[in-house]
């Protein structure tokens, strides 16, 4: 179980690199949404990401690349939105740009 107090049916806002690592390690399937408040496509994707959190067993994490610039650089995030999928602590997939819900659901299904 995650040590986070957040409700897994809602996206969890990542606070640090350590927080991200802990959440990825503690959960079977994780979707990480790298975003920025000024990013129009990120805003378009946000309702979809929230639905994924509510409707699947995947844990959805949100990383603000402006607040966590070093983390984003370490992960090689060059554009937003970038979505990373993890299965059992290992990165399994990376998608860049706005994705439709079906694409995200099928990726999560493949990892579950």
From TrEMBL:
It comes from Haloplanus vescus. The record marks 33 as: Deprotonates C-terminal active site Cys. GO terms for cellular component: cytoplasm. CDD domains: TRX_family. This is Thioredoxin. The record marks 40-41 as: Contributes to redox potential value. It comes from the Archaea. One of its GO terms (molecular function) is protein-disulfide reductase activity. Pfam families: Thioredoxin. Disulfide bonds join 39-42. Keywords: Disulfide bond, Electron transport, Redox-active center, Transport. Residues 1-112 form the Thioredoxin domain. The active site is at residues 39, 42.
């Amino acid at each position: 179980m995650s040590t986070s107090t957040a409700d897994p049916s809602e996206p969890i806002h990542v606070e640090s690199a350590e927080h991200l690592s802990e959440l990825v390690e503690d959960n079977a399937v994780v979707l990480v949404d790298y975003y920025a408040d000024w990013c129009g496509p990120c805003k378009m994707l946000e309702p979809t990401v929230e639905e994924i959190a509510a409707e699947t067993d995947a844990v959805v994490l949100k990383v603000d690349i402006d607040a966590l610039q070093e983390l984003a650089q370490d992960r090689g995030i060059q554009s937003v939105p970038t979505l990373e999928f993890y299965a059992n602590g290992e990165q399994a997939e990376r998608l860049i740009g706005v994705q439709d819900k079906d694409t995200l659901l099928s990726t999560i299904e493949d990892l579950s």
